[in-house]
Amino acid sequence: MTDEREPEPQPSPAARTRRSGARLATLALLLALVALAGVGYLYWQVNLAPLAQDPRVAVLETRLGELESRTGATSEDVAGAVRRESDRIAAELRAEFEQRAGAPAGAGTAAAPRDWKLAEARFLLRMANHRFCSSATRVAPWSCCAPRMPCW
């Protein structure tokens, strides 16, 4: 019985180095992950584990829980007070609006019939003063404005 198989070709040296490079990279990655896990564990042991065992932390956590529950109740009280106040103001405005809407025009004011004439005269005087102040023949600034009549 003769074995007539051809011998397997030997891989080239370049292929061997590629395979060994990939293995080396995988090994380096695993070593880096193990080192990172060790550093994380040491950090936890040094910095965070003593805090978990400190009795002051437990006291502060219970106090924090009490304050959070009290703050929640306070915010609900404030929200209720704001809601009641806004409802009260809305009711007052609604009542005032209905009162004014039901009253005849001009009944809410005790204005004399010539008050509108006085307001119209004041408006016309302001307009005339403004036109006069903005004219190009002005001699000195602000010289045209009356003492109680500003130029605007």
Describe the structure.
There is one protein chain. By secondary structure, the protein is an all-alpha fold. It has three domains: 18-53; 56-102; 115-152. Helices cover 71% and strands 0% of the residues. The chain has three helices and no strands. 0% of the residues are buried.
Strand and helix layout:
Blueprint: H1 13-53, H2 55-102, H3 115-133
Supply database-style keywords.
3 domains, mainly alpha, elongated, 152 residues
Cα distance spanning the termini: 123 Å
The level of helicity is over 70%
Note poorly predicted spans. Answer: none
Which radius of gyration do the C-alpha atoms yield? 46 Å
Domain module count: 3
Number of helices: 3
**Computed structural class:** mainly alpha
Report the strand count: 0
Shape type: elongated
What is the quaternary state of this protein? single chain
Note the main sheet: none
Average pLDDT for all residues: 76
What percentage of the residues does DSSP assign to strands (E)? under 5%
| Series of secondary-structure elements, N-terminal to C-terminal | HHH
